[in-house]
Amino acid sequence: QVQLVESGGGTVQPGSSLRLSCKASTSLFRIYTINWYRQTPGKQREFLGTINPDAITEYADSVNGRFIITRDNSKAMAYLQMDNLRPEDTGKYYCFVQPGSFWGQGTQVIVSS
Description:
- Helix content is 0%, strand content 50%.
- It is mainly beta.
């Protein structure tokens, strides 16, 4: 069992930046692929991007060029840097790790003027 805790959410204006963090409770963090998802009311959870154990990343088209995922294996942390935020980026953000398929509890992001 891996516990994940997201943090860093908040309310920001359009065009702002936020960095979300995902802290994992495992000493084997280096073997995990970390994924970030977003959920808005009435919609399915949306895949945003992923970083594998070799730190290779992939992103959804909706965030490519604005969001960057990084990891720090020494701290068992993953990060989602979000730049040029838009109102449609509003939602609850989750990290999800594989293998094992573990989810965090999410952190809320609101982008509003």
